[in-house]
Amino acid sequence: MIEFDHVHKRFGEHVVIDDLSLRIEDGEFFVLVGPSGSGKSTLLRTVNRLVHVDAGCVRVDGEDVAMRDVEALRRGIGYAIQSVGLFPHRTVAENIATVPRLLRWSEADIRARVDELIELLRLDEPGMAGRYPHTLSGGQQQRVGVARALAARPRIVLMDEPFGALDPLTRESLQGSLKAIQRDMGTTILFVTHDMDEAFGLGDRVGLMLDGGLVQVGKPLELIHNPADERVREFVGGTR
Ligand code: ADP
Ligand code: MG
């Protein structure tokens, strides 16, 4: 589904991704975890070509993303980030409808999908569809951001610390919603966080990233009970 094949990326002299290879399976919830600056966002952004690799290759469905039409590629991949990036002058419904509109869905299909997502993400306060982002709480804005990323039922969704700014309860509730939706839809999710608890709670598999490389990839319990080396033990132990 998503394949990183000997990916290298540097910014100037600074090597940010160092010969990284990884395969993410169809329908998998994969979490990249690691400290700030380890290269997680950069790696994630190579998938939708917000970052171009210097060497190696990133494949989606077996096809090198560098060979794809970039607009078509991005329409097929949901993307949600911490700073939400909702369009301030568009209503909740119009924000959620962004990609379906680009894909020329019918009005009826768009309306039905917006209603469905508003319910799935528990945004169902009266009049929510017609409200503007600045009238929402931080948690509600994040929910709209997630709804927008999922709107066109992409098979792949990239999420970069999407719940970073939320209080623990809101965060837990959103994690639950996301996991349920992901299971139902069979979506492949590549999720980035620096929070080990979040990684272990969400991930089918987790990859620990340090200094531009993957130190260990495995099921959460494998990293906890069978850390590959001292760095893994330290990171797992230190943040829990
Ligand atoms: P993470 O998401 O794990 O915190 P990033 O991928 O954002 O890490 O960044 C990894 C390293 O690359 C950091 O040292 C960061 O400063 C650097 N970096 C990221 N983007 C750029 C850029 N556009 N130009 C220069 N350096 C960058
Ligand atoms: Mg980041």
TrEMBL record:
Record-annotated ABC transporter domain positions: 2-236
Domain of life of the organism in this record?
Bacteria
Q: Name one GO molecular function term.
A: ATP hydrolysis activity
Arranged from A to Z, the UniProt key words for this protein are:
ATP-binding, Nucleotide-binding, Transport
- Membrane spanning stretches: none
Q: Name one GO biological process term.
A: quaternary ammonium group transport
Q: Which family does it belong to?
A: Belongs to the ABC transporter superfamily.
Q: What is this protein called?
A: ABC transporter ATP-binding protein
Instruction: Give the species this sequence originates from.
Output: Luteibacter yeojuensis
Lineage of this protein's species? Answer: Bacteria, Pseudomonadati, Pseudomonadota, Gammaproteobacteria, Lysobacterales
Give the fragment's position in the full-length protein.
1 to 240 of 309
